[in-house]
Amino acid sequence: MVIKEIRLTPEQSGKIDALWRKREAEMHAPSKEYERQKDELNRLMAERKVGVDVIGVQHDRVEAQRTTLNKSRTVMIYQISLILTPEQNAGLKAYFDRNHRDRR
């Protein structure tokens, strides 16, 4: 639906798909590590057997992985915006703004 709305060309679609697939492959391991570190933090907190400092260190590990994932997403979104024309970027923003309002 969004492809038609912003008039994405097949060439643009291919470039965006390649970016998406590249990020998905690159973020597979960090995503698994994020889940592993988050599960470990939850386990430590549930057991309540470690010091506050250990919880702080584990929280930092979780957040480091989350930062890696968020940075990758932000860079990908920016790369996509460079593929689109200014009009397509405006149309995409309008599409997401509209859908965000509808979800509320």
Task: Characterise the protein shown here.
The protein has 104 residues and is mainly α. It has helices at 2-6, 10-26, 28-47, 52-83, 86-103. Helix 2 runs antiparallel to helix 4 and helix 3 runs antiparallel to helix 4. The protein starts with a helix and ends with a helix. The mean pLDDT is 96.
In brief:
By secondary structure, the protein is mainly α.
Structural features:
104 residues, mainly alpha, 5 helices, 88% helix
The largest sheet is: none
Question: Roughly how many Å is the radius of gyration?
Answer: 19 Å
Low-confidence stretches: none
DSSP, total strands: 0
| Helicity, as a percent range | over 70%
Oligomeric state of shown chains: single chain
Shape: elongated
- How confident is the prediction overall: mean pLDDT? 96
The structure class reads mainly alpha
End-to-end C-alpha gap: 20 Å
Number of helices: 5
List the helices and strands and how they pair.
Blueprint lengths: L1 H5 L3 H17 L1 H20 L4 H32 L2 H18 L1
Helix pairs in contact: 2-4, 3-4
